[in-house]
């Protein structure tokens, strides 16, 4: 089980389970991986855009779903003069272990996301929950 309980969510990436959470204020997917980093040691810089996937699951394992996402080269994205990207990735803490997965702004592009506030009832149930 997760040591942190952000909406009761774990994210399984490359067979490793760690806490996951959603944050539209984070401009990228943030997680530790073997993806090559840029010279700044923070942003992901794969030679070509990578297709990745992870599984989000409730801490008790009763609900889960696969999320497919892309990770592109930060240097190329940065040189595009655009302000937001659906395929930007970075390292969580430059570590070699998988500490957590932040589903940042790119997760929200192209999908409807519902967040249930803890203890509040709605037609989708009583929070906390996330549905997409």
List keywords for this structure.
2 helices, 7% helix, five-stranded mixed sheet, 11 strands, 132 residues, mainly beta
What would a concise description of this structure say?
The protein is mainly β and 132 residues long. 7% of the residues lie in helices and 35% in strands.
Topology:
Elements (H helix, E strand, L loop, with lengths): L8 E5 L2 E7 L6 E2 L19 E9 L5 E8 L2 H5 L10 E2 L10 E3 L1 H4 L5 E3 L4 E2 L2 E2 L2 E3 L1
Parallel strand pairs: 2-7, 3-6
Antiparallel strand pairs: 1-2, 1-4, 4-5, 8-11, 9-10
3D structure, described in words:
It contains 2 helices and 11 strands. The model has no long low-confidence stretch (mean pLDDT 88). The strands form 4 sheets. The protein has a 5-stranded mixed beta sheet. The protein has a two-stranded parallel sheet with strand order 3-6. The protein is mostly beta strands.
């Amino acid at each position: 089980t997760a040591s942190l309980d952000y909406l009761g969510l774990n994210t399984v990436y490359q067979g490793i389970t760690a806490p996951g959470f959603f944050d539209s204020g984070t401009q990228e997917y943030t997680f530790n991986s073997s993806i090559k980093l840029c010279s700044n040691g923070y942003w992901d810089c794969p030679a070509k855009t990578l297709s990745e996937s992870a599984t989000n699951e409730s801490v008790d394992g009763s609900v889960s779903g696969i999320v497919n996402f892309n990770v592109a080269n930060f240097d190329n994205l940065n040189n595009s003069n655009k302000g937001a990207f659906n395929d930007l990735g970075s390292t969580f803490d430059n570590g070699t272990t998988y500490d957590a997965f932040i589903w940042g702004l790119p997760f929200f592009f192209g999908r409807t996301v519902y967040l249930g506030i803890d203890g509040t009832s709605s037609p989708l149930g009583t929070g906390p929950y996330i549905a997409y």
